[in-house]
Design goal:
Elements: H1 4-7, E1 12-15, H2 28-31, H3 36-41, E2 44-48, E3 51-56, E4 59-65, E5 76-81, E6 90-94, E7 100-102, E8 105-108, E9 114-125, E10 128-139, E11 150-153, E12 162-167, E13 176-182, E14 188-191, E15 195-199, E16 207-217, E17 222-231, E18 238-246, E19 253-261, E20 268-272, E21 280-281, E22 285-287, E23 293-303, E24 306-317, E25 328-335, E26 339-346, E27 357-361, E28 367-368, E29 374-380, E30 386-396, E31 399-409
Antiparallel strand pairs: 1-10, 2-3, 3-4, 4-5, 5-8, 6-7, 6-9, 9-10, 11-12, 12-15, 13-14, 13-16, 16-17, 18-19, 19-22, 20-21, 20-23, 23-24, 25-26, 26-29, 27-28, 27-30, 30-31
Amino acid sequence: MKQLSVLFLVGFMAILLFSCKKEADIDLDKLVQVDSVQITKGAIVTVARDTTIVTYGNVEAKFSQTSTCYPSKEVFTFSASGVGLPAGGYYSWSFGDGNIANGATTTHSYQAAGSFVVTLMVMANANNMLAKVSFGVKALGQQTKPEAIFTTKFDFPQNINYVTFNSASSINQGDIIQFKYNWGDGTEYISSVGLVRHEFPKKVNDTSYAVKLTVLSNFGCTDDTTVQVTIPGMYSIKGKFKTESIDACTNERILFTAEAENVPTGAVYEWDFSDGTGPRTGNPILYKYKHPNDYDVIMTIKLNGREIYKTNKLVNSKGENPRPKAVFEETLVWDYPTSQRWSFNSKSTIPTSTIDSYHWNFGNGNTNNEFYSFIETSYNKETIGKSYTVQLIVTGNGCADTARKTITIPPK
């Protein structure tokens, strides 16, 4: 990384200046030695490992830089040599960003990326410059570490093992030039773009993979992040569910029990009873309907929030108050010397439905099972008075209720 600075040198300029005024006790010609060839060709630049050396005559400037990748901070180190300075002499540096420093060795950091012209001045004193060497450096600045981020999306319903990965990685300075995905299934993929897709192996059970993304910037900095990706298993579930009605005609509740095979451990049973109350979970599960009806009940099996099986069937419910109430009135229609005729009028009701049948037993051996809510029958008089129990059974919603009354026939 440190050698890269040589590749970005924006040019080199070396100018040797001699003061018009010479101090009587200093031989300035001996301090800075430049021959005609060097003056013609300018500065000489060499690279030794991670250090760049700029020479002009016997003036030598060296610089190197540290990595900008976190947790490092890019720092340039500059050093000057080659001249035996007189008493009071010094080296002065101008870094091209408005900052200066003095000393044979100094350090400097650039806050922003860019190309800068660094100038080294050899000073006999504050008013007498012996030589000046200028050269370019390429600074990467600070905050060059990328941040690795990516999202996943299962956007191929026909192939749940095929997953889309989209990098949302960013960098403050520079560009991300490489995206390396390690899928966690023994394979990896390197791309120059952040949007890639991968097909994971098909397995019977849900399988989680630690997917790792490593991003590389053009400055050589890297960052990585790992996300757990769960690939759904291919489950061969089959079966339905059974229902059992409890206290159907008094306080109906229906017990739903799944009868499914090959259901994985940890699966959740979710029920939609199709009456607008929303899903419920459990197995078995007891449920009470408010209204009588045929309901299309849906049982869904989920694992880790994902649907892995679904089945349904119609279920009949009697609802609340399904049982009819049997009531009737009796009326003497006429009275003959040898017989009496009575009428019976049903006042039976059912709260949530309609009555399906009327079953009359008049107690005198006569019955009627036709759909009559109003009916008449005759009783013969005997030598002594006699009582008869009249019974009405009404049905509705599959439930029944019975009402009884006693009538007395006088003797003839």
